[in-house]
Structures are given as C-alpha cells and as structure tokens.
C-alpha cells in the first residue's frame, strides 16, 4: 500500500509528501513515490520517479521552487543512500545513489542550495552509526561524517541553528539494556567536538562555499576553508541540453545525460513500441502487444521527458482475439485513447475484424472500455480533437462491397462512438488501405493510405488521400497524382494555410523488385499537389512518420544499408529539398514505430520503436533535437535551437544547424521559388 514518510511545505501553500508505493516495475514491491497537494489538501500531482527501482523516500525538503528527497534503494542485497531532485510539477531532474549501507532519514537546508542529510551508515556490514553528509544542489557529497555511539545507531531528525551555530540531530542508539534517545550537536561541517572542529568552529557554511561547480567545499580543523578540485563531481554546463555534466580538470563538460538520447529499454520493455502520443508535459505514451499462454496482451506505457518509465498498464484480451494494431492519442484533458484492432478466430465470430477503443486517465487507470466493438473494421490511427474526444481511421472489411473502404470514427473522451462514416469503392477488384488521419480544422480531416487494384494478372498500388468533412464526407480524393509513381501513404502532418504533408513509400511498379524509396508530397488545402519528392535508393521501406519543425519537416523511416535495419530521420525544407539525413542503430534490426513522429514544443522530436539483437526484441526510445541529433555533445550549439530560429527567410537557402557554429544556410540553385521564378545563386529570380 502507499505510505507517506516525510512532508514539506512552501510559503505559497504547496504541500508535498514523499514515501513509497507498490510498482509493477519491481514486481509489486515498494518504490519511491511523491504526492503534491494544494493549500486546501486537493491533489495536484503524483509521481513514481523511478518505478523500476526498489526503495523508498524518508526525507523531503523544499529547494527553491524544487523539492529534494532522500531515502534508500535496494542494491546488491543491501541498502544505498538515494537522493533525487524534482521540479515544481514533479518531474525528475536527477537522482543519485550514495554509498552502500547509507540510509537518509532527514534533510535540511543550511544555505542557498546547500543541504545536510542525516541518517545511518552501516559500513561493510558492521553495526550502524549516526551519519551526516553535506550536499550541494546537484547531489554532490562534499563531506561525510560517521559517529559511533553504540552498537546500533541512527539519526532521524535534523534541526539547523542560526548561521554559524551548527546543527542539532536527534535519533536513537542501542545499549545492552535496550534502546535510548540520542542527541548530537555539531558545527556546520558535522564536527562534534571543539577539538575536531578546530579552525572551523563558528565558521558558517556560506563562508567556505566558493561557487565553483567543480570543487568540494569543506572546512579543515587546521586552516579552515578547503576548496579542492574533484573529478568525481557532477555539474550543470548550462548548455540548454545537458541536465548534469561532469567535471574534467576543474571545468564543467557536457555529457549525454541530457534531454537528447537514443536507448534500448532492455528487460523493462521486452517488445517493440507502437504508435506513441505526445503529452503536454513533454513525455509520451506508447503501446505494444505480447503473446502469453493466456492470450494476447495490450500494453500502454507512460514515459517522462527523460525517457523514464512512469507506469505500465496491461490489458489481457479474450483468448480468441489477436491484436492487429495499436495506436495511441492523448488530449489536453489528460485522457489517453488506445485504438486497437482484433482478429477474432473462426468460428467464434463471423465479424472477424473488429476495432475497439480503450480510454485511460493520466495515471494509467482505465476509465472506459468499449464493450461494443466496431465490427468489420481494422485499426490504423487515432488522433485527438481540439474540442475533446478523438477521431480514428481504419479499414472497413465488410463482405458487402458497398460497405468496404476506409472508415472514419469519432469517439468522445469516454470512448463512446459518436459517428462513423465509410468511404466506399464500388469498382471491382479495387480496395483501400488506411494509413493515418489528421484533423485539419473543426469538422475537417485528411485521411491518407493507398488504393490497390488487380486487373487481369497485373496488380498496382497508388497513394491516396481523402479530404473529409463532418456531415458531407468526401470532398477531394487524390489518386496517382504523380504518373508512374506507385506506393502508399503511411503518415500525414499539417503544413501552412490548412495544407498538409503526406509521406510514405514509393516503388517504380508493383512486383518489380526495385528498391522502395522514401516518398514525400506537399498538398494545398484544396488537394492540389505543390510538390512531390523521392529520397534515396537504400530503403526497403519508406516513411513511418512526419512532423513539422517551424517551416521545415522531418520524416522518419527505416532502411537496410549493409543488410541491417537502421532508423532514419530526414530533414526537408518547405520546398521539398533535402537539408539533412541521419541514420541510427542500436542493434541489428532497428525500426521506428507506426505512423507517428512526435513534434515537441521545445523544438525536439520523439520517436518510439523496436530494436532486435541476438533474437531478442525490446522497446526503443529516441529523443532528438530539431536537427536529428540524439546526443548533447553531438548537437553542440544546435541543442537549444529550434528549427524556426535558423530560418533566414530566403526560399533559396536550406536552413541547417552545425554543432560548432550553430545556424547556417546552404545556397540552393535551380529549384522553383515562386510563380515563374527559380533560385539562381541563392536568389529567387524570374525565369
């Protein structure tokens, strides 16, 4: 059960409680938990900062607008001191593990962003001692003291005295006759005797803090203040990307502990992630499926903006159901919709294909489950609506040819179906495959996918889009708009003036064996094509997702150069010209998920998918900047620069970013830049 162990308040009335709560990430055992309340006791947020780590929090103190919490975590059959700092919304800034055998039971503030932790230490399995440690705001331990007062000691409460007056600590110690109270008074540096304190007696901590990130600030009995360079310290390089850097030679250097990363999720997620959805706090939710002895399982996972798994919800499907796809969407009210398709084994049901919606709240609790599925429909994509609720796209698989085609379904925030419309085809041997849906404006949507035909012995497949309206359904259909270019659309993103970008896969003709390539097309609001581009010859598959970055676009795909699959991001300018392209690999087989590349408000990009190596599949998360960098060191000066910040306003330049100097522009020649105009030496000129 949940349990509070420490409480702290702020002058603004905020109340935060730290303690423990069970977590599926540690097999139902306890992990650290934090709850926030307003001045009237109403819940404002709650979090399990590290749900895959067994332990608990026992100490909490306000740290400016943040909160510093301490306790212990299980480590190699022992306990180790555990520190973490959370911002005002509960987001984890960092966490630290102190020495094995240390348990933190109280924290106090002594100076601005300086703290003292108290508790017990049990070095090398010996009897526990009273313990004090001096910390900075990044969790660096500047000094540590142990006090042996009996066979089993521990401090539980700390109290700061006026500047220079030291600390009071209370706890207990074991004696031959039982347990008795213990009281300890030290100076600001943890010295418990005048002789031990020496030149430090009466010297407040602030006097010895030099404000250099890469020195330990302590006080020695002989000589007083001691500030020594230390390689083991962490620091803040203030590069706009790295959360915590490393001290090298007395200088704070950026590391890859920042908001950019590309990582496999290991045993925590032993399956590929599908179709993620971005959340307002910078995190994301993603789905997946696994097969167990009991049947298919739908998984929904919630990650924070640093890729930390916060919760993992599972739903066992009926034994005769098999999942045919999972897609997620999140709305501003915190609700999360999970669209999934099922294939019902014959002869259990005649309606073999079914589409269902599951709705969860922000904590992962199921609030609605559609028990009346949308029959004869596959599941492809789901997106939030600005007015609330969601819109989904799937394939209508009815045996009645007058009802086959693409199905557009609107549901409310509780997953209840509000409307469903099908775009049918009555042409023999023609059928439509759904890809993705994009709400353009109130009551207006664009659907993308493919149309496949079979005539005699010849087969073909063309990319297709449909612009639909509430009540009026189809207004524009786009088929084979680029002669000789077959393929399918799998993703779509909004462009300017209610236009859109559609991306997918292209191939010369059906069954030719020629390489598949990345296909991107820009359409105006009325469905007219603005431009069509194809990139590369290395890829067996084309686009998986597309996102708008300022005026530019980024497309995710994957390919097989050298025989091993890699994830690929491609940056494209507003006229369809290539700006940059990057390839990423963690294992032998890498793949982005579904048809969503998530656009973040700070200029970054989220991508989820799978990595396979040694016959094992696991989830993959990538967080890149606007230029495709997945490392703060690699990004350099580009890390904090959003795409639009590098737009020089010239249609005849490709606006990029280099790690060493930041924004730069490459001159483009020969591309169309206006009506009867073309770029010449970087200038838009008349033909």
User: Biggest sheet, in brief?
Assistant: 5 strands, antiparallel
Q: Which term fits the overall shape?
A: globular
Q: Portion of residues in helices?
A: under 10%
Q: Rg to the nearest angstrom?
A: 29 Å
Strand content: over 45%
How many beta-strand segments?
55
Write down the overall mean pLDDT: 81
Tally of individual helices:
2
Distance between termini? 74 Å
Report the uncertain regions: none
- The secondary-structure class comes to mainly beta
Oligomer: single chain
Describe what this molecule looks like in 3D.
With 687 residues, this protein is an all-beta fold. The strands form 15 sheets. Strands 21, 47, 48, 49 and 50 form a five-stranded antiparallel beta sheet that branches. A hairpin with a 5-residue loop joins strand 33 and strand 34 (417-424).
Q: How would you summarize this macromolecular structure in one to three sentences?
A:
The protein has 2 helices and 55 strands. By secondary structure, the protein is mainly beta. The strands form 15 sheets. Strands 21, 47, 48, 49 and 50 form a 5-stranded antiparallel sheet that branches. Strands 26, 27, 28, 29 and 30 form a 5-stranded antiparallel sheet that branches. Strands 1-2-3-4 form a 4-stranded antiparallel sheet, with no helix packed on it.
